[in-house]
Amino acid sequence: MLEGLNRVFARLNPLSDPKPLIDILIVALIFYWLLGVIRGTRVVQLLRGIGVLLALSILLSSVLPLDTLRWLLTNAIQPALFVAIPVLFQPELRRALESLGRTNDLFGRGFGRANRSELLETINGVSRAAQQLSQQGVGALMVLEREVGLQDYADRGVIIDARLAIPLLLNIFYPNSPLHDMAVILRGNRILAANVVLPLSEDVGGPRRYGTRHRAAKGISEQSDAIAVVVSEETGAISLMNDGRMVSYLNEARLRSMLAGLLKVSLEENEK
Ligand SMILES: Nc1ncnc2c1ncn2[C@@H]1O[C@H](COP(=O)(O)OP(=O)(O)OP(=O)(O)O)[C@@H](O)[C@H]1O
């Protein structure tokens, strides 16, 4: 036992051969990244289900000498699981690959193409508009594009491509306006599109039951790195969704500081 351990430590000695240590480090980093990607998503439950199924099939086929069952497990269920994995995890795999392609994330420079003053314009505009819409009991869904392009979604709505202005945002969401339904997509300091249909999250919110506006906001934040801001028509509550997670009951100031934090923009100079 002790001899075995000594052999392991001798192999791990970076002075004699750094390869095993580098190997372990890279594998640990890959697992760390994978866990970060799946944290808080439905993948955890799916993986648990697949784990239980695999453990049961291995246990049954090794303990019980039942040939037909063993044949079914090894020739049908296990291969079917491997085919099903890419289909079941399609959004998560897509997100993982997209996050690898996001060079800005790797170098910690925050999000992309927009400069600080454009971002501030958006942060202030969205927060003020959300507060005013909330006070008036008008429902709204605003999506801030980050590194993952949302052009596909925007093209299915109505392209506006206008400089962001609070009255324009309010006008879009007022109940009888032709574009008030669905979501608005913001790119930098511009309103890219309105009336955009977003993918609905499969998470229905348990007993609380999200409505479709909140599920759409959650859906886009799960399938991309976009931030969604929702104003509930029913309660006036302002919520922010990022990475599939929701923070509710925000006011204008709190929403502003959360957006600034997520977009890595300092608000201090602005306040001087
Ligand atoms: N796929 C979608 N993408 C974007 N917006 C959507 C989508 N589906 C529904 N909506 C918006 O959600 C509105 C309906 O909201 P609903 O009341 O069902 O949800 P909710 O989350 O309870 O919102 P609220 O709290 O504002 O009532 C629709 O009028 C539409 O504007």
Automatic annotation (TrEMBL):
Example GO molecular function: diadenylate cyclase activity
UniProt xrefs under Pfam families: CdaA_N (PF19293), DAC (PF02457)
Residue ranges constituting the DAC domain according to the UniProt record: 90-252
Keywords of the record: ATP-binding, Cell membrane, Membrane, Nucleotide-binding, Nucleotidyltransferase, Transferase, Transmembrane, Transmembrane helix
GO process annotations (BP): cAMP biosynthetic process
Catalytic activity: 2 ATP = 3',3'-c-di-AMP + 2 diphosphate
UniProt xrefs under Gene3D superfamilies: DNA integrity scanning protein, DisA, N-terminal domain (3.40.1700.10)
Record has Nucleotidyltransferase as a keyword: yes
Oligomer status and interactors: Probably a homodimer.
Reported function: Catalyzes the condensation of 2 ATP molecules into cyclic di-AMP (c-di-AMP), a second messenger used to regulate differing processes in different bacteria.
Protein's UniProt name: Diadenylate cyclase
